[in-house]
Amino acid sequence: MTHAANEGPARSDDRSDEGRRTGGRRAAGRRAAGRRRPRRRGLRNVLIGCAVLALAAGGTAWWMYEDLDGNITSVDLDEALGDDRPTKEPGTTEALNILVLGSDSRAGDNAELDGAKVGGARSDTALVVHVAQGRSEAVAVSIPRDTLVDRPACVRADGTEVGPAKRVMFNSVYAQAGSACTLKTVETMSGVRIDHLMEIDFAGFTSLVDELGGVTVTVDEPIRNAKGGLTLDPGQHRLDGTESLEFVRTRYGYKDGSDLGRIGLQQQFLVALIGEVKRQDLLGDPLKTYKIADSLTGALTTDSELASLTSLAEFGQSLQGIDPAAMDTVMLPVKYDPADPNRVVPAQPLADKVWDALRNDRPIPEAARKSPAAG
Questions:
Q1: Are 356 and 240 a contacting pair, CB within 8 Å?
Q2: How confident is the model over 40-57, as pLDDT tens digits?
Q3: How would DSSP label each residue in 65-103?
Q4: Per-residue pLDDT tens for 104-133?
Q5: Do residues 72 and 307 touch, judged by C-beta distance below 8 A?
């Protein structure tokens, strides 16, 4: 995985041409130029990029528009979160922050994933994508799912309330209270105003890779994921959708078996997936583009402002100035929790330096890129 960003997300009924043009430009950032960047990238960023690419082409025919437009599920952030939220810093109102979630819900088409052995739903992957004023550069901050956080009081989608809680796993917030509460938790822990929400489930991910005909990755260290069943020797491998999902979810059979190591695989996969999309030139194959767009929109949940094909296509056009291969990606600095070595907590003051950079639309300091717990 971007648009309008003044003092918060624009309302879905404000669809003037100027509003859409302004909102559509909220998807670029300035983290790439003049700085050394890791080659790894965040998994869900590529899903946004591919979705937008496909959607922009898929909207060329009205019948396609009608079909795809009805696929998208939306969340009204204004209604769910109210007015008690962070505000933008002076001079940063055109910058944009998007919370990108990858969910492992076992509803619908996801029921058979992992052999239907996992119940409930969690936010398996979470990124805060910051798009700067210039709309030409961006940075994505990965939040490890095992991070202990304080969850604020929230209202679920069904209107029921969930009380605040301290020291809960970050990915449990989604399971307990949904994506809007996850967004509120991020705002509470960071002080960063989140303008948009984009969530994709695993079924959409596997469909995307299969429609592409697979993605090629290069493995430097052996993967022996006994839990997921994926076994890869060092070298080059062409992965289908199911194998790709296992690859980005591999944890116990890779390096130290931690979630932090898995983030590295997810970031590595992004580069390969972007390269595959560029190689195939999807805009030159309308039928394939439509199939990919149909898979993705059916698996996509956004905030209400983005919940139409037109808005997503305009969002995609606004990303044209960003080179995905140069997109800056970092992990939120964390350290192992003294009371529970299986969990991590934000490492201070490094974590605050990351959030401060996003709030003020500035580059993330080099010192804040070195997480004490690196996986």
A1: no
A2: 444 444 555 555 444 444
A3: HHHHHTT-EEE-HHHHHTT-S--PPTT-TT-EEEEEEEE
A4: 654 444 444 444 444 455 567 888 999 998
A5: yes
Looking at residue 257, the DSSP 8-state letter turns out to be -
How many angstroms separate the CA atoms of 230 and 174, rounded? 27
Please list the helix, strand and coil fractions of the chain in percent, rounded to the nearest 5, in that order: 40, 20, 40
State which amino acid sits at residue 326.
A
Q: Percentage of the chain surpassing pLDDT 90?
A: 34
How far from 234 is each of 40, 106, 122, CA to CA, in Å? 17, 32, 31
At residue 264, does pLDDT exceed 80?
Answer: no
Which of 37-40's residues contact partners 24+ apart within 8 Å by CB, and which partners?
Answer: 37/326, 37/328, 37/329, 38/267, 38/329, 38/330, 39/268, 39/271, 40/264, 40/267, 40/268, 40/270, 40/271, 40/329
Q: Please give the Cα distance from 33 to 123 (Å, whole number).
A: 31
- Helix H or strand E segment including 368: none
**CA 345 to CA 170: how far, in whole Å?**
10
CA torsion sign, 289 to 291 to 294 to 297? negative
Q: How far apart are CA 30 and CA 347, in angstroms?
A: 24
Give the DSSP letter of residue 230. Answer: -
| pLDDT over 50 (residue 13) | no
Structure confidence by residue, pLDDT tens digits, 189-209? 999 999 999 987 776 778 878
For residue range 319-329, list pLDDT tens digits in order: 677 776 677 88
The residues, ordered by sequence, that sit 6+ positions from 46 with a Cβ below 8 Å of its Cβ are: 1, 269, 270, 273, 274, 277, 324
In this structure, the number of other CB atoms found within 10 A of the CB of residue 253 comes to 18
Q: How far is CA 264 from CA 124, 249, 258, in A?
A: 14, 11, 10
Q: Which two tokens stand for residue 200?
A: 């994709």
Distances (CA, A) of 139 to 1, 34, 155, 253: 11, 14, 30, 29
Dihedral sign computed on CA atoms, order 10, 4, 333, 202: positive
CA 332 vs. chain centroid, Å, equals 14
